Amino acid sequence: MPGEETASPHEPGRRRSLQLLGLLCGFTAGAWLGAAEAPTKLVSIGVSPIVISLIMVVGVFLARWSLPALVMGTSSVRADVKRAPHLIIWALLAGALWAVANTLTIFAIRDIGLSIAFPLWNSNSLLGIFWGFLFFNELRQAGWRRWAGVLGGTAVMCTGAAVLAIASAGQSASGHSLNGVWAALGAGVLWGTMYIPYRKAYLTGMNPMSFVTFFTFGELGMMGALAFSYIGAAPLWHALVQARGVMFWLMLGGFIWVIGDLFQQYAAKYVGISRGIPLSNTNQLWGLLWGILVFGELHGKSSATYAQVIGGSLLMMVGVAAISFSSAGGQEQRHWKEAAERESERYGVSPEFVAARFDGRQALDEVLPRRNSLDWFLVAAATAVLAGFALIARVPEFSFHWVPAVLLSLSSLALLFVCARKLWRTTGFH
Amino acid sequence: MATEPSSRGRLSTIFTDIHFWVPALVLLAGLLLLRFIH
Question: Do B19 and A90 touch (CB under 8 A)?
Fold first, then answer.
């Protein structure tokens, strides 16, 4: 039964359980966001980066409607939106921020290469900590140990990420280095700021499954507008037709990415953005594991490169451990609750509803989420679209190692199963 | 007890909320930056 661990929501045991759940969601998010890179590696060069991004966002759109319909049902999404309709604006804003940031990273990689660009946009976690502290009372009265754990852990993770990016980068700068630096920094600022809407929504009580269904309109709308304005309608259509053989892989990448992002949303809800963002940034580690073990990306590289990979990975793990041991205590959580009450009062959302969702429970006056025919239609339509593109997909000639691919897939699936089960039993996916 | 605001009241609450303006201005700056570097 969902929520069977929810008997006494205010007791410290419950708080600890929600914190552990948030940390687990952060780890799982990293694994699935990293795995999302695997299908995109099957796409050879020749497709415009903006077209690649647009096709992935179409896959994301399919997943963002079909997964919530399958797990909670659209009636639950409707009920959530009815209670806090103002959050639609923030969901659209967050989706648009994501799309612009993602496009900026494409230009950053083109101009300065991944090794310089990645550490610059990875600064999003530091900005997330700042916004979390400033707007949502995160890390208030947290004590110097937790501050040191979160800030120190994030800094160590950023260093590890930079070392990994240097080791895995294959491209050189293109001569527009200042533009590339601005693009990477801009992407970091946009992604770091995107977490303001996330945290606002979850403090108000909105279910992450509901938030992402509207987020994706901002994402697809902005990405579509950018693709139209930069490429033009006719060339864009031509590029999409040309890319039809690889569309499935890109859409699959988008679909897998959404699974990771859903866990990232739950991490932002239960451990806050100051801890949730750095934890889900471990996706770089998983992406690199896929690249090295499955696609043989570092094959033939020097031992110094391997040393960089091992060193960078260890640094990231140390950072993750530091953040994991700095979860919010009772006093800090009281400040979070004050921020939630402020939102409830300002937007006229029922305090009982906000308090229940804050504790990962269903409010007393809520009806149990139930799936209807619309939900099954959405699931069937998304499956049919993916299956249709799978039928016309080209399987590229690629060096591919099956054993590590199976092992990594099984590890990701195991994390998905354990985390989803814990989410269901502890919060009923609230 | 929180009371549900009217649509107009809700809009005015949104537009006086700093949580709206910070992401909105960052989005605008991002679009300008994209235009500048493209």
Answer: yes
DSSP character string of A116-141: HHHHHHTTHHHHHHHHHHHHH-TTTT
CA distance A409 to A234: 39
Mean pLDDT of A222-230: 92
Chain centre to alpha carbon of residue A4: 28
Give the residue from B34, B35, B38 with the most A CB atoms within 10 Å of its CB, the best one to mutate.
B34
Is there a contact between A19 and A373 (Cβ–Cβ < 8 Å)? Answer: no
The answer to whether residues A23 and A248 touch, using CB atoms and an 8 Å cutoff, is no
Q: Which two tokens stand for residue A257?
A: 């990415």
pLDDT for residue A326 is more than 90? no
- How far is Cα A69 from Cα A90, in angstroms, rounded to an integer? 21
Q: List b or e across A2-12, with b for residues whose CB sees 16 or more CB atoms inside 10 angstroms.
A: bbebbeeeeee
From chain A, pick out residues whose CB is under 8 angstroms from the CB of B35. none
pLDDT of residue A224: 93
Q: Which of B6, B33, B35 to mutate to test the interface with A (most CBs of A within 10 A)?
A: B33
Q: Establish if B32 touches chain A: CB-CB under 8 angstroms.
A: no
HSE of A81 in the Cβ direction (CA atoms, 13 Å)?
A: 16
The identity of residue A270, as a single letter, is: Y
Mean pLDDT score across all residues of chain A: 85
Answer for the pair A308, A167: CB distance below 8 angstroms, yes or no: yes
ipTM of the complex: 0.90
Sign of the CA dihedral with A225 first, then A185, A49, and A63 last: negative
- Consecutive H or E run containing A408: helix A402-427
- Token code pair at residue A164: 């990994």
CA A323, CA A147: separation in Å to the nearest integer?
A: 9
Contacts of B9 (CB under 8 A, 6+ apart): none
Helix or strand holding residue A188 (H, E)? helix A177-204
The model carries a pTM of 0.85
Whether residue A121 contacts residue A105, with contact meaning beta carbons closer than 8 Å, is answered with yes
In chain A, what residues touch B31 (CB-CB under 8 Å)? 100
Q: Answer yes or no: do A179 and B37 touch at CB < 8 A.
A: yes
User: How many angstroms separate the CA atoms of A218 and A90, rounded?
Assistant: 9
- Tell if the CB–CB gap between A193 and B38 is shorter than 8 Å: no
